[in-house]
Amino acid sequence: MMAWKIGPALAAGNSVVLKPARQTALSALRTAEIAAEAGIPDGVFNVVPGAGSVLGPALCRHMDVDMAAFTGSTSVGRDLLRYSADSNLKRIILELGGKNPQVVLAEADLDNAAPHVVRAAFWNMGENCSAGSRLIIRREVKDALLEKVVAQTRLWPVGDPLDPATRVGPLIEPAHMRTVLGFIDAGKREGARLVLGGNRVLVETGGNFVEPTIFDEATNAMTVAREEIFGPVLAVIPVDSDEEAIAVANDTNYGWPPRCTPRTSPRPTASPRDPRRGGGCQLFWRRRSDHAFWRIQGVGLLRPRQVVVRPGAIHRT
After folding, report:
1. What is the distance between the alpha carbons of residues 85 and 243, in angstroms, rounded to a whole number?
2. pLDDT tens string 61-95
3. What pLDDT score was predicted for residue 271?
4. Based on the number of CB atoms within 10 Å of its own CB, is 4 exposed (0-12), middle (13-18) or buried (19 or more)?
5. Phi and psi at residue 71, in whole multiples of 5°?
6. What separation in angstroms does the CA of 205 have from each of 68, 125, 162, 176?
7. Which residue among 15, 116, 236, 241 has the highest number of C-beta atoms inside a 10 angstrom radius?
8. Which residues are annotated as catalytic?
9. What is the pLDDT of residue 178?
């Protein structure tokens, strides 16, 4: 996320002020050290750790800042839009939450689909805005695919993130682990069927480990299907037609790229433009080089490989 934003801005000749999340300040400071070693002049790339409640308003209300890009919560994103309106109407790019659908149609190749479904749901412990946390599946193939997804998920060991064999590491902090476990409890209370996981594990290590969790027979009205969990939790939602699959995929306040499986024929039955997500309908984990944000997911467009920022758009402060 950091590289997506600072790379194009620096390449276009801007100065940048980076305010890292409090949980990730060390990696940002190390990046600043590397930038200095690489010859970037003092004052061009600046890292300012600190409380977001103080630094966020200071930066985004500053009259000499012409653009601000933010990755984080929807509530803070709303604040940044207000700060822009209160100051110089600076351009704001917001990359906020997501509740992204994976749509599997009746004639999809289930053996091919299963590992992609697992990767989309549990990569990086589900702590990413583009996690495919809703699996929308035609009812007639749901049980067959779910069996394969569970088998693939069991191949993802939980453990030390420095161990190359580990596929699922700890969550970012204890408070967030408790939040994720709270969402799992909500899924149980609301009637979703727990198929796999659902627990904190490796408690003896003191780490924030939550095992990959799969709920079956979820509805799109349930908390696990509507709220961004930002953890390793997948909600399986059966549907009875392709049209219902698209309607359920669109029934969200968020806007992020979906992943749709084609049928066995080369041409998908569901139109790639049917799901109202920012990236269009995609085949599993293949990602476009741009992300368009809308609804409460965010504002703006990121093209990591193509962005050209107007020189001088971010001023040194």
Report:
1. 40
2. 999 999 999 998 889 999 999 999 999 999 999 98
3. 46
4. middle
5. -120, 125
6. 39, 17, 14, 17
7. 236
8. 95, 129
9. 98
φ and ψ at residue 239, rounded to 5 degrees: -135, 165
Whole-number percent of the chain with pLDDT over 70: 80
CB 306 within 8 A of CB 290: yes
pLDDT at 260: 64
**Sequence letter at residue 279:** G
- Show the tokens assigned to 252: 């969200």
Q: Give the residue carrying structure tokens 């509805």.
A: 219
Tell me the sheet residues that pair with 213. 233
Secondary structure, 3-state, the chain: CHHHHHHHHHHCCCCEEECCCHHHHHHHHHHHHHHHHCCCCCCCEEECCCCHHHHHHHHHCCCCECEEEEECCHHHHHHHHHHHHHCCCCEEEEECCCCCEEEECCCCCHHHHHHHHHHHHHHHHHCCCCCCCEEEEEHHHHHHHHHHHHHHHCCCCECCCCCCCCCECCCCCHHHHHHHHHHHHHHHHCCCEEEECCCEECHHHCCCEECCEEEECCCCCCHHHHCCCCCCEEEEEEECCHHHHHHHHHCCCCCCCCEECCCCCCCCCCCCCCCCCCCCCECCCCCCCCEEECHHHEEEEECCCCCCCCCCCECCC
pLDDT at 268: 42
Contacts of 2 (CB under 8 A, 6+ apart): 18, 20, 27, 28, 31
The length of the chain is 317
Residue type at position 194:
L
More reliable by pLDDT, 270 or 80: 80
The residue type of 21 is A
**Beta strands at 291-293 and 298-302: parallel, antiparallel or unpaired:** antiparallel
Mean pLDDT (the chain) is: 85
Structure-token pair, residue 277:
């997500």
